[in-house]
Structures are given as C-alpha cells and as structure tokens.
Specification:
Largest sheet: none
Distance between the termini: 20 Å
Strand content: under 5%
Number of strands: 0
Helix content: over 70%
Structural class: mainly alpha
C-alpha cells in the first residue's frame, strides 16, 4: 500500500478514478424511475383504464378517450415518456469505459427497449389516437361504433406491446443497478 501526499491510499485514488461520476449513477437512477413510471402508466391503461372505458357506449368511449389523449400530453407525463429514453442514453455515456461494461450492457438493452416503446407509441398508438380525434372535429353525424371498432383492439395491442417493452427496460435498468453495486463502485 502506498500513501499519497494527501494521506489517501493509492488504491483509493485508483478506485475513485475508475468509478463512474456521480452524474452517471444519478442518471441511471433517474432512467430507472422514469422507465418504471412509464411502464406503470401503460400497465394501468391495460388493466384498468381501457377495461373501464370498455363498459361504456361507443360515443362515450370515443369522447372520453379523446379527452384522455389531450390531457396526457403534459410536462409530468412527457418527463417519463421522453426521460426514460433520454436518461438511459445519458447513463450509458457514463458507463462507456471497458471496466464498466457489465453495467453498460444492461443500460443499452434498456435504452433499446425504451426506444422500441417510443416507436410503438409514435408509429402505432398516436396515429390511432389521431384517427379517433376526427370525431372531435367532425361536422354532422359521426359513426362512433366504426371509430371505436377501428381503434380499441389495435390500440390495446400496441399498448400491451409498449408496456412489455418498458417493463423489460425497467428490468434491465434494475439489473444494471445490481451490476453497478456488484462492481463495488
């Protein structure tokens, strides 16, 4: 053991140099939390919101779903929706070093799954939402039964797919935290 001029052991200095910056750990924790929140939103839709809406007539279903689709686009939801991917990517940057690869691999898996969820949402659920919103802008008679028929089952399928993607991402981020803890850093 070698002492440095400040009284620290040389191994302590080397370990501190190898550890990811505090911002890396913080970004990993925030990625985990935001991903968990997003998985929870999609889970809640699958096991309660859509089941409850399914009990209503076609007109009420369409009108309430349209209102939900408007109010959900808010800063709190967007923090988890975009933050899950952004903080996963940010965390991965701090774990790029070769000695931190066991953590990085799981963060990368989570980032890929968070991206998949974003793609499903943007490419599948949002277009269905936009089509359903035509009832709000329509002049005259609206075929609520047809709108609902074209929306409900496909939207539920997309929602379950993105819920699974985000749940997988959450699992990967939790495992990244375990790997971080095992690394002794």
């Amino acid at each position: 053991m070698t002492m440095t001029h400040s009284g620290l052991l040389a191994e302590d200095v080397l370990d501190a140099h190898r550890a990811p910056p505090t911002l890396g750990v913080v970004s990993l924790i925030i990625a985990t939390v935001t991903t968990g929140l997003l998985a929870g939103v999609f889970y809640a839709y699958a096991c309660s919101v859509m089941i409850g809406l399914g009990k209503f007539d076609d007109k009420t279903f369409v009108e309430v779903m349209n209102k939900i689709n408007v109010v959900i686009v808010n800063p709190v939801f967007m923090l988890s929706f975009l933050g899950s991917l952004a903080f996963s990517i940010l965390a991965s940057v701090f774990y790029l070093r070769s000695d931190l690869r066991p953590v990085l691999i799981w963060i990368a898996v989570a980032a890929a799954l968070n991206l998949l969820s974003l793609i499903i949402t943007s490419g599948f659920n949002v277009p269905l939402n936009n089509n359903l919103a035509t009832a709000t802008d329509a002049q005259g008679l609206v075929d609520f039964a047809a709108l609902r028929k074209d929306f409900e089952t496909p939207w539920l399928t997309g929602n379950i797919a993105r819920a699974l993607a985000n749940t997988g991402a959450l699992t990967a981020l939790c495992w990244a935290l375990v790997q971080h803890g095992r690394s002794g850093r």
